């Protein structure tokens, strides 16, 4: 019996890798324009990093982390998100020493034990950015604009940007009390998760996916009514900067994020044709996280984008045309002497920049020409005893079926630069 991949994981096969590279190239292009530098952190960290960074009362820490003991008895967790790891690296390597604002981006696998469904896996891939060290609302706006522009660069339409302010430690206690007053008589009807959240993290009651609980929460007080002057002014300036950049948005006073470290700005971008799994990117400000993890009080803001859902969105709009990977030349070797010469010739062609392939099994010419067709090679270079004696190859145009003898050291120039007569180089 063949061992299968674990539930909630996915093989990215060769015919799909081109799509992923396309998206990753878009990521690197936009991050370069916004002056963000790539960081690569370990796929696993000490468990306490995520317990401190994400929050003990979050679903991620309570239910979804892949945690195990290593051979020395230390508790290790596969990263469920990358902000905590980026902050740990920022502190551990003193990235703040050379600049006030550190701008990082990453692409990589994350791991959460969740119910697999369309666009959601237990191993999933995220693109994220973190801007650490600056309080200005202009940085919040820049982060949001980067996320929007990245998605737009892929050709995605029907994007919906929602923003909110979730306050800070000065104004959130008042809102927490108001939420508890509102839900006190309703919490008995809510799901077990919400009953647990009522005392520990009542803001998460607004984030429940249960339809009945959402109905109970529809008239809950809005945090925007409780913001302190500082948070309100910050939020107004974020909106002003987004408007200056021509970014459309709506204020959603019910929008909260699933991790405890968020303060002030929170945002989410949805691609609505995806339905229930329409959120493709989200993030916000997390001014207390660096201090929580042992550093000095340091403002920060960032977002993460789920690449599986981005790929679904691209598929939904049929934006990506798969380009077949084709060889430049397939070298056909007839006989043992030609096989050795062809092997050397293939290596020479590759050194000159061509995509060159050959058959290693000594098969018949008919069989090798079939392989050349399957490889989508533009040319076949046929080598037998006669060609070896003359130091030439029989270069065959696979589109026109025309062929001619070409000196071996002229094959590269013929393939790369000889097409002056239309489709065929062999006229």
* Gyration radius over CA: 29 Å
Question: How would you name the CATH homologous superfamily of the largest domain?
Answer: Bira Bifunctional Protein, Domain 2
Query: How far is the N terminus from the C terminus?
Result: 55 Å
> Order of strands across the widest beta sheet?
1-5-6-11-10-9-7-8
**Under the CATH scheme, which class of the largest domain?**
Alpha Beta
Largest sheet: 8 strands, mixed
The averaged pLDDT comes out at: 90
Can you describe what's shown?
There is one protein chain. It is built from 15 helices and 16 strands. It folds into 2 domains: 14-171 and 227-317, BirA Bifunctional Protein, domain 2 (2-Layer Sandwich), CATH 3.30.930; 329-413, 3-Layer(aba) Sandwich (Rossmann fold), CATH 3.40.50.800. The chain has 427 residues and is of the alpha+beta class. α1 runs antiparallel to α5 (137-153) and α5 packs parallel to α9. Helices cover 37% and strands 21% of the residues. An 8-stranded mixed beta sheet has the order 1-5-6-11-10-9-7-8, with helices on both faces. It has a 5-stranded mixed beta sheet with strand order 13-12-14-15-16, sandwiched between helices. Strands 2-4-3 form a 3-stranded antiparallel beta sheet.
Q: Topology of this structure?
A:
Layout: H1 14-33, E1 37-38, E2 44-46, H2 47-54, H3 59-64, E3 67-69, E4 75-78, H4 83-92, E5 102-111, E6 123-132, H5 137-153, E7 159-165, H6 172-183, H7 192-200, H8 211-217, H9 229-244, E8 250-251, E9 263-271, E10 279-285, H10 289-292, E11 300-306, H11 307-317, E12 329-333, H12 336-351, E13 356-358, H13 365-374, E14 379-383, H14 385-390, E15 392-397, E16 403-407, H15 411-417
Helix pairs in contact: 1-5, 2-4, 5-9
């Amino acid at each position: 019996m063949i061992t299968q991949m674990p539930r909630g994981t996915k093989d990215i096969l060769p015919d799909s890798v081109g799509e992923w590279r396309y998206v990753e190239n878009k990521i690197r292009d936009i991050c370069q324009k916004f002056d963000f530098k790539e960081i690569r952190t370990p796929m696993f960290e000490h468990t306490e990093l995520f317990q401190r960074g994400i929050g003990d009362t979050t679903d991620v820490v309570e239910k979804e982390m892949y945690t195990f003991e290593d051979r020395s008895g230390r508790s290790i967790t596969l990263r469920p998100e990358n902000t905590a790891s980026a902050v740990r690296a920022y502190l551990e390597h003193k990235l703040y020493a050379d600049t006030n604002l550190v701008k990082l981006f990453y692409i990589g696998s994350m791991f959460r034990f969740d119910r697999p469904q369309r666009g959601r896996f237990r191993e999933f891939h995220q693109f994220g950015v973190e801007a650490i060290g600056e309080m200005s609302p202009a940085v919040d706006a820049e982060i949001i604009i980067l996320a929007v522009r990245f998605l737009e660069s892929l050709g995605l339409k029907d994007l919906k940007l929602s923003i909110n302010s979730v306050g800070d430690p000065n104004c959130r206690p008042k809102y927490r009390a108001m939420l508890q007053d509102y839900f006190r008589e309703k919490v008995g009807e809510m799901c077990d998760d919400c009953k647990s959240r009522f005392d520990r993290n009542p803001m998460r009651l607004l984030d429940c996916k249960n339809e009945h609980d959402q109905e109970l929460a529809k008239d809950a007080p809005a945090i925007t009514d409780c913001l302190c002057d500082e948070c309100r002014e910050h939020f107004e300036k974020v909106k002003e900067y987004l408007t200056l950049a021509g970014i459309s948005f709506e204020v959603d006073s019910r929008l909260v994020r699933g991790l405890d470290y968020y303060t002030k700005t929170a945002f989410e971008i949805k691609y609505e044709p995806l339905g229930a799994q329409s959120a493709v990117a989200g993030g916000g400000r997390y001014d207390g996280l660096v201090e929580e993890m042992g550093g000095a009080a340091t403002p920060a803001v960032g977002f993460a984008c789920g690449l599986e859902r981005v790929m679904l969105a691209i598929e939904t709009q049929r934006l990506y045309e798969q380009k077949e990977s084709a060889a430049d030349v397939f070298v056909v070797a007839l006989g043992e002497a030609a096989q050795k010469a062809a092997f050397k010739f293939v290596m020479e062609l590759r050194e000159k920049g061509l995509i060159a392939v050959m058959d290693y099994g000594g098969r018949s010419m008919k069989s090798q020409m079939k392989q050349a067709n399957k490889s989508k090679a533009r040319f076949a270079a046929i080598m037998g005893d006669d060609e070896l004696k003359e130091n030439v190859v029989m270069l065959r145009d696979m589109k026109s079926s025309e062929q001619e003898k070409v000196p071996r050291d002229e094959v590269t120039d013929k393939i790369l630069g000889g097409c002056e007569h239309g489709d065929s180089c062999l006229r």
